[in-house]
Design goal:
Blueprint: H1 25-41, E1 47-50, H2 54-66, E2 73-75, H3 95-100, H4 120-136, E3 143-146, H5 149-161, E4 177-181, E5 189-195, H6 209-219
Parallel strand pairs: 1-2, 1-3
Antiparallel strand pairs: 4-5
């Protein structure tokens, strides 16, 4: 899953520290809806992993509560979101590319930096070994990972292509569910991507999550 909705900016337009933002009211509702869906579908988890950032931990807690499951949440810092730099250091004429380029598909994507911070290649360097460690474990059959939009793109792209990859065009709605079947020998199956429990058809969407954040930043 991706975590539920959060607010990255204060009312005055100043950014909040990305490592501290909690779920907002929409995010809580989205996480509850995901948990209710798991309950209706009879999905029971053996292990639950969150990146350790509050928005993923809170999402996992609400999913478990709504699906009537009591499981200790393991924190995996290597699966935290791609790390941005300081917005104040980005020249106005470069703001759009700083927000959007890392999540656009194309050549040399690994060299692109998110908000002047971590590059896509650096993100892949830390999240792919973490995935390998979890898939090598023999203490789970059904695993819930509550992570982030960029991290999920990295994992999904690599599993879909069978090699290190990052498809920026793979959108990840807040609290969306991705269903992966990890098989021996790397013969993995991606069964579902970006299932949004409060908006199955994405009928109200015209912008990506990063385009929405850019518009919010400019407006504030």
């Amino acid at each position: 899953m991706r975590h539920g909705s959060v607010d990255y900016f204060r009312a005055d337009g100043s950014p909040l520290p990305a490592e501290t933002v909690p779920l907002n009211a929409d995010g809580e509702r989205q996480a509850d809806a995901a948990g209710a869906l798991f309950a209706r579908s009879g999905v029971r988890f053996d292990k639950v992993v969150a990146s350790g950032l509050p928005r993923t931990v809170q999402t996992a807690q609400r999913v478990l509560a709504a699906s009537a499951q009591q499981i200790e949440i393991t924190h995996e810092p290597a699966l935290q979101e791609i790390r941005g730099g300081r917005l104040s250091r980005i020249p106005p004429e470069e703001v759009e590319s700083a927000f959007l380029d890392a999540f656009r598909s194309g050549p040399e994507v690994e060299s692109r930096r998110f908000l002047g911070g971590e590059s896509v290649g650096e993100l892949l360097d830390r999240v792919l070994p973490a995935l390998a460690r979890w898939r090598a474990r023999d203490d789970w059959e059904c695993l819930l990972m509550v992570l982030h939009g960029g991290v999920n793109r990295a994992l999904l792209s690599t599993l879909m292509s069978g090699q290190r990859a990052f498809f920026g065009a793979l959108e990840q709605q807040p609290a969306c569910i991705n269903v992966l079947d990890l098989r021996p020998g790397g013969h993995d199956v991606v069964r579902a991507v970006n299932l949004a429990p409060t908006q199955w058809l994405h009928e109200h969407e015209r912008l990506t999550t990063m385009e929405k954040l850019l518009a919010q930043y400019r407006r504030l």
